[in-house]
Amino acid sequence: MSSRSTVAPVALAVGMLLISMVSYQCGASLAKHLFPQVGAQGATAYRLGLSALILLLWRRPWRRWGSRRDRRALWGYGLSMGAMNLVFYMSLRTIPLGIAVALEFTGPLALALFGSRRLLDFVWIALVVAGLALLLPLRGQMQALDPVGVLYALAAGGGWALYIVLGRKAGAAYGADAVTLGTSIGALLAIPFGVAHAGAALLSPTLLPYALGVAVLSSALPYSLEMVALTRLPARTFSTLLSLEPAVAAVAGVALLGEQLSVLQWLAIVAIIVAAAGTALSVQPALAEPLAN
Predict the structure, then answer these.
(1) Into how many domains does the chain fold?
(2) CA dist 214 to 28, 64, 107, 211, Å?
(3) What confidence tens digit (pLDDT) does each residue in 144-167 have?
């Protein structure tokens, strides 16, 4: 295979991943505006429920269901997606978007660094630890982060790591239908929490346009784009290429939500970004691995 034919699909996958990150953070900013009306649980139900409906009507995956395999990976992918979204939105109730994403990002970064043995890899690990030390509420400061919000964000990171691993398996078995089916499974987990918290408020016609915006920007579009990238890049590479996610989230929080971060918090986010980018550079030769199959 020529270098040009190898680079083009990789560049396309990376471009789709970048678009998905911007879309995701814009959707998260919009979702946070729904919290006063339906709470984080209701916003999650909107996001996954409407996304599932949109994707089911578009893809109609039941037409190809009979030939599918590896349903355990599919259900694991969907449940991890639902849990990840729910606890992430719960974290946004009390901590800024950029910090929540930086904390959540430790999940994919831990996956990327798992099994590392080289000295350089431990430099990236040290940068992550330094970033977390600046972010976590370990000191009695006036602006210390809410510990419950921090725990929710870290739990979302664990869900994100599972989403990456199981998403590759589900994508290999179900192709583009994996996003539709996984989102539907995630909705089955999230909707009961939303109904229990918000009840009839979820049916408000005035909230529907915002809910549709959250569904498209936060799930239907980015998850579809991510699935393309997941099936074309190794899991470790995919994880590390997400290094811009905390920066995109921080900028979205400042621009769309009016959130302000301290200098130390910006330094912490930069440390995590540098660690992720450094790890990405160290695994560049693996980029073409799936394309040789």
Answers:
(1) 1
(2) 7, 28, 23, 5
(3) 688 899 999 999 999 989 988 898
